[in-house]
Structure formats: structure tokens, C-alpha cells
Protein 1
Amino acid sequence: MVDGLRPDDIVARIGGDEFVLVRCNLQTLEQATAFAEEARSALGVALDVGGRSFQVTASIGVALSTASDTPDSLLRDADDAMCQAKQDGRNRITAFDMRARQRAHRRQSIAQAMAQGLERHHFHLEYQPVFELPHRRVVGFEALLRWEHPVFGSISPSEFIPIAEASGMIVPLGDWVLEEAIHQLAAWQGASDVDNGLWMAVNLSADQLRQPQLVERIAGLIARAGVMAGTVHLEITESSLMDRVDNAIEILTALRALGTRISIDDFGTGYSSLSYLSRLPVDIIKIDRSFVEGLGEGRPDTLIVRAIMALAATLDLHVVAEGVERAEQADLLTELGCEFGQGFFWSRSLRPQEARRWIDVVSRVG
Ligand code: C2E
Ligand code: MG
Ligand code: MG
């Protein structure tokens, strides 16, 4: 390697097994990467130590300085890229990616803002109506979490839920969701013109299932709200169910013993084996939106939905189709024997006052 170095190159050991190579006047990331490639192949030569041959490998991160960089920021970027190279399988070169840094920074800011957001009531729930298909009667709602951040604006749950799961905030956040949704259900069911069979579906993350007091907590919420346990549906995604299946079976069995209904969310996107499906204490399958989207005469997704319907019938499960956006989809789902549906075709998720109107419409019609 020394052969390939120029007089003004800098080689330094900055700790443990970490080294820095600095070369000035490189113009492009390609040139910097080519330099790293030279270093890697020079290191790849086998070393003879006391008659034994050793091979050294290196994970190299490359960063090119910009006008605004300081030595510290340049080193930090190279270090980030090096960590990425290790994560990607070691013995490789990875260039620093500014967008990855921005994404990581946003993730971190979101994680940090979450506790305060909960404290300051920046979270709220919206409710998406679920319809009984042939009659198009509202039978329940799904509670969906929303976050209005004072600086970032509205943040999608698809972005903040995984962050909450990684940081552990999902537990207090999920507790709040359960309490708020069950409270709302009790308020609606308590109205004289509302069927007290109206249900509320609440999404639960895998980590919430591992919470020691979860079953007692839900039992307490249901008892205090005075709703029938059977009108509380708990949705768990297929992939999180399969994460630690035995633990999931134990908790779901206890939740079901309380009387709550269990739904498998996003069904078809995970890898649940059929043998588990028959062992899992579930009541409802929610067909993932991606299959509903692909529905149509002679389309493969139609066959998949048909197969899911047959499976549900065999296992005696109810089926809710998610993400219904068009009349043809609703019609085809009805034809295929699907009992329930939700989606933008009928309604998006709504604030409680607007959601309440759907129940009114139903009681007037029905
Ligand atoms: P999910 O539980 O599968 O919820 C359905 C998602 O599909 C919602 O997205 C809903 O707004 C969206 N959706 C409904 N109908 C349609 C449609 O016709 N077309 C399209 N394109 N989308 C439709 P949202 O609210 O962004 O939530 C995303 C995911 O975040 C949820 O998927 C759920 O996994 C998670 N999530 C939301 N709230 C909570 C919560 O309180 N706790 C937990 N653990 N997860 C939550
Ligand atoms: Mg759901
Ligand atoms: Mg879903």
C-alpha cells in the first residue's frame, strides 16, 4: 500500500482497528472510491507472520469533503459510511450517503419528539368505518393514530410507528390509543340510536404483546368503559405474530378469554405458515390492501383472495377486506363472499364528530 501513497497523503491510526486515509484534491466520489479500492486490494495481499499466512480484510467508508465540512464532520461522515459497510457484510467499500444521514437525523428527531408529543396532546385518533358488504351498513371502526407535529407537520404512522417500536415508546403510545379508542367506543355505544354491537378495532404492536400487564390493562379498560369485550377487536399484523409465535399464542389466548376479538392485519404480506394459522387464537383475517388493489376478472390477486376466503371458511374466521377504493372491488369482494370491507371508496379515517355521522346515516337507513 505504501507504494501507492503520495507524499501529501495522510495515513493515521485513530483507535483500535480504525485507520484514516486522507487524500487531497480529489474531485469526485468515484476518484475517492477508486483510491479506497487501491487500499483494499493492497491490504488483500496475504501477510506472512512467523511462517503463517494471514489475510486482512477492511470495511471502508468513503466521504468527500464539501465547502461546509469541518475535519470533524468529514471524519463523522466517513465513520458513518464505514459502519454501513460493516452492516452490509464487511470487507467492502461504502460511500457516505447524505440522504441516509438526513433520514437518520429525521428518525432521531422524531424519536426524541415523541414523548413530548404524547404529553402535549399532539396525537389524536381518527376512525375509519368498516362496512358489512352486502348491506353497506357500518358495523365498526378502526382507530388509526395521527400525529400533528408542530414543526414536521403531520407525520404518517407508517413512518413513526416503526420508530416508536424501535425506541420502546410504542408501549405508552399504545396504552394511550387503547384507552382513547375504548372510551370513544363506549361514548358511541351509549347513544340511544346506536347498536351496542358496534365494534372498535385497535392496532397492537408486537412489543405491546410482550407487556406483562397487557391483559389486565385491557380487562380494566373494558370494565371501566362498560363495553362488551366482544366489541373490542385487537389487530396484530401477520409479520409481528410470526415474530415470537409461542409468546403470541399465549397472550392472544388470554385476550380471547377476556372476550376480545383478534384480527390478523395485513394478511398475505407476512409468512404465516398454515399450521400456525390453525393454532393461533384468531377470529378475523384482514386481507391486505395490495390484494384488493389487484382484484379484477381473471387477475391473479382474485385467485388469491378466493383462496383466502376458502381458508377463512375452513378455519371459521371472518374476513375484512382493507383498502377498498372502487365500486368494482366492493362488488367483486361481495361476490367472493367477503363479509366486511373498509376503504376510501366509502370513507377515509375521520375525526370522531364526522365518524359519528356515518353511524347516524346507518341508523336512519337501516
Ligand atoms: P393498518 O392497520 O393496516 O391500517 C390501514 C391503513 O390503510 C391506514 O393507514 C388507512 O388510512 C389506510 N387505508 C384505509 N383505506 C384505504 C384505501 O382505500 N386506500 C389506501 N391507499 N389506504 C387505505 P395509516 O393510518 O397510514 O396507518 C398505517 C399503519 O400504521 C396501519 O396499517 C397500522 O399498521 C399502523 N398504525 C396506525 N395506527 C396505529 C396504532 O394506534 N398502533 C399501532 N401499533 N399501529 C398503528
Ligand atoms: Mg389495522
Ligand atoms: Mg392493514
Protein 2
Amino acid sequence: MKNRVFLILLVLAVAFGLAGCKRSAPTPTPVPPPAASAPAGPLDAQVVAAAFQKGTCGACHVIPGVPNAVGTIGPDLSRMGEVARATLQSSAYTGKAKDVPGYIREAIVEPDAYVATGCPGGVCQKGLMPASLAGLLTEQELELVVQYLAGLPDKAAAAPLPAVTAVPAAAPALSDSDFAVASQIFFDRCAGCHGTLRKGATGPALTPDKTVPKGTAALAAIIFNGTPRGMPDWGKQGVLTQEQTELMAKFLQQEPPAPPEMSLAQMKETWKVFLAPEKRPTAPQHNRDWQDFFAVTLRDAGQVAIVDGDTFEVVNKVETGYAVHISRMSATGRYVYVIGRDGRATIIDLWLAVPDKVAEVKTCYDARSIESSKYKGPEGDFSDKYAIVGCYWPPHFVILEGLTLEPFKIVSTRSYTYDTEEYHPEPRVASIVASHFKPEWIVNVKETGQIWLVNYTDPNAPGIKMLEAERYLHDGGWDSTGRYFLVAANNANKVAVVDALEGRLAALVETPKIPHPGRGANWIDPQFGPVWTTAHLGDPSLIAIGTDPQGHPDSAWKVVRNIQLPGAGSLFVKTHPDSPWIWVDHPLNSDEVIQRTVCVIAKANPTKTEKCWEVADYGRAVHFEYNREGTQVWVSVWGRADQPGKTGEIVIYDDKTLAEVARIPNLVTPTGKFNVYNTVKDLY
Ligand code: DHE
């Protein structure tokens, strides 16, 4: 593993160049061979600018002097001439070019000849640069592009090219049936990051003004190959075929369709109570330690497995929503609340002889979060009384009866952005947590950057305090005292801190690119005291933020540690108060070895990873959970539902020695795991 990382760094160091530009496209079209004698006369600025526009180069590259060339998918070409010269002299170069123009021409027409590494956000992806783009240019245009790039950086400063007005603005044609198929794929795979209306959030906006100038070939290449900044490589993963990536590239150039709304009456039509509260047992009907049960998401099976933490037996597999997202426990832990991506909420009773669902309801078409009411104190006992579902589409949250899931109150989150006060039609509900200090839910509204403190004392007339935080709020967790909630504003590279006791924003902390904590991890740093940790999707680092303003005021709400990881693409971290380790995964890294690698960092020496290893020889290692005692760590191997023997499993490690204890094999795409006791107690 270490050797591999070293190699990557070495290649990075010697070979910054045009390579992100240089890879096979999903469906390369034949590139015309260069003419024997290409014209090499003086550059006509207008014609050169038009050539760059025709080749859609600026969609992926920064090219000084070229109007609108500000793309950040391929390498920055600002110093292309210099970089080409240096690369030709380096031993890392694998192409056939002998001079700078030859190198650049090769990079465009034969992208596989040599792939450099300097894409924004990390190593350039294989196949990112579509060879078919060269086919868009005539030989003369290609030569003009080559000449211009070969002259950088000097040429741009000397003579910036004029803006070209003739934009090929029309989206490609799409039949109604193709449009319908693409809409469904978009909902299943893309809406989570880009928004149903494609206005952008974790991923960039994909409205026609942005996508049409990129063109079908460039878009298809990105969808097929992913980007180092976290866009999954849907084609390479085998999730989308080449035909489907091209279909999606065409779909993205059309106006986004407006999805339907949902009323309370429509929700109630889907509401089912399988076992009424009065018919449920008054004590557990089995002898298992139900507080050590794990609710395990079997993502592509649309099920949650209830697994016994003592015996590792799968006690039941409960049918829940499509692509189940998370589970949360009721205040007592007896009930598991599950939310599917399709907005279906399910409640599972762990006291039944065979734990099973007792009610379900669909509260929207697209959802990610669910929580229960947890407050018990002078203002009342709300344990297991209400539940809340946070929706992506329609953008609203719904309050439900805690024991039956009967929905009774919908609150729209359509509102105004916290900073510019502009109306946003799709502010989606991201994470929700229940405060222990007040009868309140903390509801994170992604696109407007507002954190809503929703008081549920009178849930039909909920009090809502709107805190101004930062845009693209996503996931987060409590500090060790349960007073402060830390939530990633992922695309703003910040973590917002809410003081749940005083009901105010305590801080906004700058982080590396795209923090993604899950619920984070709390531990005591030997130098800085209590800290909370996140890793990042867009940066190979794990940071610790001081969380103790009283005891350690100098480190409070500051990044006090930044520990290097083998790669970016991390989704989750975890620890336990009794553990010597902080665990971190990298499932969205583009390297398939790093994808299945987990690392531990020693709390006693939080300056480096102590150990990294591959959890399996396939799939992605994702998400951690401790058993009730805090002695074992469960890691999911997220496989492929269509690959028998490699659909996924859970690997269990001894937390002290890091030795493997057991495997629970043949699970279908396990992802999140939630231990009853730890989830109720917010232990992470
Ligand atoms: Fe998640 C938490 C949204 C992709 C597994 N995910 C969350 C939360 C949100 C969210 C808002 C916080 C819920 C809370 O605490 O109330 N997730 C999204 C997306 O929008 C995104 C980026 C894209 C999408 O289309 O859904 C996305 N998430 C994923 C995955 O691809 C994962 C790895 C597998 C899957 O289910 O598709 C995944 N998300 C999880 C898990 C948690 C989660 C396991 C809970 C972590 C925890 O420990 O609490």
C-alpha cells in the first residue's frame, strides 16, 4: 500500500501535463489522420477562438486568453508550452512525440499515448479526455489550437483571443421515451448530488446554459469516467453502459423536467400500520440482547438486515424503501426508523419475536433523513412520540406520529438563500438530529444554507428559528457533550457549529475540500483536548476541530490537526470513547485499491495514519460501527448486486489488536450500520 502511494506521488511530481486531456472516450469516433503539410501561418485570433469553442476545450480546461475557458476537470493549460517541453524530457513520458507541437497534437488526437497526472483535485482519470473531440475539428483548426497552446504562457499575455458569439446553443434531440428513461436514471443516480432541478449542490449545476457548451462527447466522458473531485465513474463501475452515458449527456442538455408535488392525502394513501401499538408486546419476545442489534442497510436489495451483535446472525431482513439510506433509533432504542431514497419511511419493532416492520408510509419521492423526538425533561416526555422525515423532493419535511408513522404536518423548505436572499425552488433537507436539551430538531436546509431549529412541543404549529450558516449543508454529528452539532457545508469547504443549548450558530470552520463526516468522531487529543473529526471527499486528509470552548478556548472551533490519508474520497470516520483508534474509509477514491482500504490513526499520536489495509479483494470499504461494548468494529464491503460471491459482506475487527474476528458473507451491498445502543447514546 505504502509503495503504491509513493509511486502515485512520484508520478505526480514528475509528470504534470496535458494528460487529463488524453484518454480514450467511451465511444471514440475515428480521428482523421493529420494532413501531411499542416498550415502553420500566423494565428488569426477570431479563427483560433472559434476553433477552441468548437472543440469545447474550455469546458474542461483553464486556457488563458481563450474566452470562457475556465473548466476544472482536466489540467490547467496555462503553461502548456513549458509543461510539454518538461514532460518530453522526463523519463515518465510514454508517448511518441519529439517536439512541443507534436506532444500537444498527440494529447488531443491520441489521448492514450501518455496520461499526465495534474488534474485539479488529484490524478487525471483514465478516459476523461474524449479522443472524439479531435474529430470535431478540421485539420486546420486542430493545427491552430496546437500552435496556440504551444505558445503558452507567453502567447495569451501577448494577444488574448476575442470572444466568439456563435455559440452552438441547441440541445441534441431526444425522443420522449429516451427522455423518460434518462429522467429515471437521473433520479436514481444523479439527483442526490446535482439536485432534482439540476441547480447544483454537492455536484455542480447541470442546467442547459452550463451543459450545452460542453457538448455531448465531453459530458459523456465525464459521466463514464468520473472526476477526481468525487463524481463517480458510472461507466467504469458498470452501472451505466456507454449508450446510457451518451443518453444522459444528451438529457442533461435539455431543460430539467418539473417533478410532481405531494400532498398529505397522497401520503396517507401509502400509510400502512401492520401491527397497531396496542397489539405490540410490552416486553422483548426473544432472549437476544436487542440493544446490541445492528440495523444494516442492504442498499440495492431495498432491505435492512437486523443483525445480532453477539452472534453475528442475521435475525431478519426487512423490506424497506428503494436504496435505503439511513436508520436512526427511537429514544428508547426499541424502534428503528428507516428512510429509503424513494421517501418511504419504515418503523421496525425490535421487541417482536422476529423483529419486523410495524408501519410504513411514503412522505416524498426522494429523501435522505429521518429522526425521532428524543427530549425528556421539564417541557415534557417526548420519547418515541414523533418522527420527522427530511425530503429532497418535494423540498419539505414531514412530522409523523412516532409509533404509527401517521403523517400529519408538512413544512415546505422553499425559501431564500441565507446570504443573497434569493428565492430557491429546491432547498433540500439534509441531516436532521434531535436535541437533548430542548424539544427541538436541528434541520439542515442544504441549498439555502439555513439551519432550522424546529420546536415540536406543538407540532401542528412548530416554532422555527432559522440560523444563517453556509450553503450545501449535508451531514454531521454531535460533539462528545451533545451540546454542539457540527455539520458539513460540503461544497463551501466549511463545518458549521450549532450551539443547541443557546440556539445559535457558534462558529464556521474552514476545512479542506468537501468535508464529509458522516456523524464525525469525538476523541481527546493529547495536546488539544476534546476534538471532533471529519475526512474529505475532495482532499486526502482527516482533520480534528477543537470542541471545548470552556476547557481549551485556544483550540475551540479551529482545525488543530490535519492528518494525511492515502487518498481523497473518504465518506466516514468513527471511533468509540474506549478505543485507541480513529477509523477512516475512502470508498469514493478513484483508485480501486484505495477504495477498499481503511486506515486507523492512533489517538495517542494523531499525526499520521498508523496502519492502512485492504478489507477485501473487491468492492469498496465503507462506514464503520462499534458493537455495544465498544470492543469490535464492523466495516462494510460494498460490492455489486449483480456479481454473485461479490455482492458484499461485513468484516468485523477486534478494536484493540485490529485482528479480523469474523465475516458476515453474502450480504447485498451493505453500506450503513447502526448499533442500537451506540445510536441512541450518540456514541461516535
Ligand atoms: Fe448519504 C448520511 C445524503 C450518497 C450512505 N447521506 C447522509 C445524510 C445525508 C445524505 C443528507 C445525513 C442524514 C442524517 O444524518 O440525517 N448521501 C446523501 C446524498 O445526497 C448523496 C451524496 C447522493 C445520493 O444520491 O444520495 C449520498 N450516502 C451516499 C452513498 O452513496 C452512500 C455511501 C451509500 C448509499 O446509501 O447510497 C451513502 N449516507 C450514507 C450513510 C449515512 C448517510 C451510511 C449515515 C452515516 C451515519 O453514520 O450516520
Protein 3
Amino acid sequence: MNLHVVILAAGRGTRMKSALPKVLHQIAGRPMLAHVIDTARKLAPQVLHIVHGHGTSELLAAFAGQELDWVHQEDQRGTGHAVAQALPLIPDAARVLILYGDVPCVREQTLATLLRAQETTDLAVLTTRLVDPQGYGRIVRGPQGFVDAIREERDASEVERSIDEVNTGLMVAQAGALRRWLGQIQPHNAQGELYLTDIVSLAAQEGVGVVAVPVADETEVRGVNDRLQLAGMERIWQTREAERLMRAGVTLADPARIDVRGDLHCETDVFIDVGCVFEGTVRLAQGVRVGPYCILRDCHVETGTEILSHCVLEGARIGEGARVGPYARLRPGSELGDATHIGNFVEVKKATLGEGTKVNHLSYVGDAEIGRGVNIGAGTITCNYDGANKHLTRIGDDVFVGSDTQLIAPVSIGNGATIGAGSTITRDVPEGALALSRVPQRLREDWVRPRKKDK
Ligand code: UD1
Ligand code: CA
């Protein structure tokens, strides 16, 4: 059946104490609402409706270009009122899944289970059991196990408050029935709001068997109301990621000290030391080792390569059996061949390095094409920028570049050429030649170092 998803995100989020709309606060480097949308999309809905109230321009900007139906809720008159705003665009024959923009960690499988439960009835609600159910709507079940009502904390009796099964807020309803029930709800409650939860007793009165689907892992359905809960949710997310990685054959030095803010794909026997952050899409092949305190964003690292501590790598591809770091920086467009070595305080940008090439210390390699088996000495700089344009440095195979060399681009160095240390190379160097541009050393054996004058 035609599925419509309605994500509630109109709440003010006062307790965040923030200029940013609550659902744009991030979990794992992405807005909470983005996670909910992602999970919802996996269920292949016909339309995804987002009910919003505050921070409209920020929300629209954050999700620009995405196919979403933005529904504005002028005044926040309650969850029932919020859902009603989306109904005009939903046909009676559809089914409606209601999600919360501030409940970011719910799993696709859990929602699939909820959807399956609703196939035999008009209304199914996702519930969970809490040691401390305070603040949540309680699930009041009838003798046959169907839900008779959801009672909000403020409206609950003493006996009802002792119920530990609570409403997560997530539910699935048959659209026609939902429309009928929402037309009947009244703001006759402690908060004077139109409660979505009141549709449950209306359904029960019609003889509908309202099914409660309990979710075992309550962390999935936790909401975020303040920054403490946001931080708590971040840890829940990261714990899940760490567990996923370890199950896939990755060794984590400490599963509590890794942050994955994107998609990290690892083959087996990858080792990741403490304090690493992964952003965007990162692929680590078999046996890759990542040292402590590295940041990798949109990188692809091949088999057996070792990234030593404190590296910042972005948009780089690194071949097999290479060694990078400690303290190396690879910027977008860095393509390092197999068995290359990049050492400490080396920056590489938009450069390809052939197999076995080494840049071991204190160098800048930008806008360069470097062959195989090249040795770039300490302190070498490709001077790629003339103040207006960037130029290319080409270095052939088996070139030896002495330390403290400046290569003034555009410039080409032929295969097998040697550049003497301390040179400033302004013209192309042919194959096999030696290029030297340093000032010859002078010696004065009779020279006497000046002394301080006696006073
Ligand atoms: C709601 C449920 C409660 C459940 C709890 C789970 C109702 C009446 N109660 O209570 O049973 O245990 O969630 O967290 O539904 N929202 C709007 N527009 C509104 C009001 C709310 O979009 O007019 C959105 C909020 O942004 C939020 C969600 O709906 O994402 C829930 O609203 P909230 O006011 O937090 O509901 P609770 O009182 O926590
Ligand atoms: Ca809430």
C-alpha cells in the first residue's frame, strides 16, 4: 500500500537554547532530521512530509534540492494538530507513518516491523519499556493486549503512572481512519493541546484492535530535547558504529574513542587507534592501520597501508603498502601510489606520486605529477603559485631532488635527473642531468669572528 511518512519537526526546541532549529543540531556530523529522512527513505515512501514551524529558511536551505513536502504548522497546537496539517495531501487509501525529527536513531528494521504490524489493523504504535517512564505517555492495554488508550503523564491517574510501557510517539495508521479520528480529537487535557495520542482511544471505541509494537532497545526511540541528550545520543550513535566495525573484523584500540561522521567502510583486519575522526566516505582496505588522532575525510586507502599518528587526510587515494605520517597533511587530489612514503610535516595537494616515491620530511608538493622511485629531499617546495595562477611541476621516474629545493612551476624534471641540495630550479632539467643552482661556497681561512668591545 501507498506509504506516506510524516515527520514532526515544528516544536520550538526551547531547551536547546539555540538560534538553530532543534532538528538541525547534529548527530554524527549531520542534522538529526537528515538521519530521520534517510531512514524513512529506505522504506520507499510515496511522499515524505515534514511538518515545520520554526527556522523555516534554515530548514529549507539545509535540505535544498531534496524531494520533500514541507508543511508549515503556523501555531504549535499539539502533535494531533501537527499531523493534521499534512493530511490534505494524503489520499484515504494510503497508510501514514509518523516519525519525530528529534528521534534520530530509530532503525529501519524497527519501522519495518511496525509497518508489518499495521497490515492487519488500522493503527499500530511503537512502544518501549522504561525503568523511569516519567514524562512519557503511558500505554494502557486492554484485557486482550490491544491498546485502549495512551495517557499523557499530566492526565494520568496514579495507577496509570505506574505503567512502564510508554508511547514512543512513532505510529502507523490507515490514512482514512486517521483523518476521521483527527477530526474528533479535542484539546480537553492538561496542556490544552490537540493530542495525537487521543486517536488511540477513539480507534479502540470503534472496535479497532490497536497494536502495540514494543522495541527492545529504548535508545532507538530516545528523543533529544537539550544538549545533554544530544551528547548522549551522539555516544549512542558512535557506540553503534564501533560495534558495527568490530563485528566486521576491525580492531579498535578503544571503541569509546572513535568518531564516525559519515560512511566508514573497512575490510577485515583494519586497526584503528584512539581519537580518530572519519568524515564523508572513507574506505580502508584489508589490514590498513590508522594511528592515534588522525582525521580522514573522503579517503580511500589500499591494502596494508599504514597511517601514522596525527595525520589530516582529505580527498586522498593511497595505494598498497604505503606509509603516511606522523603529522602529514594530504589535501584533495592527492594520489599516492603503492609503497609511497609521506613523512612528517609534509603537505600534498592535487599531486600524483608513482610507486615507491618518498617525500619524507617537511615539504610542500602541490599541483605535481611525480613518477616512480623518486626521492624528494627534506624541505622541498613546489612553487606552484605565481600570485595569480597555479602551475604544474612534472617530475619523471627515479629523480633525486636534494634537500631544500624550490621547483618554480611550470617546470619539468626528466627521468633519472638529479637536483643538488639548495637549488632553485627555474628551467626544465633534461633526463639524467644534474642541476645545481646554489651559490658556490666561499672560504676565508684568515677570517676572524668579531668580538665584543671592552668597555
Ligand atoms: C509526545 C507524546 C507522548 C510520548 C512522547 C515521546 C503526544 C500528545 N504525546 O509527548 O505520548 O510519550 O511524545 O517523546 O503526542 N510537534 C510539532 N507540533 C506541535 C507539537 C509537537 O511538530 O504542535 C513535534 C515536536 O517538534 C516533537 C514531537 O512533535 O518533535 C513531539 O512533541 P512534544 O511536545 O515533545 O511531545 P511530548 O509532550 O514529549
Ligand atoms: Ca518530547
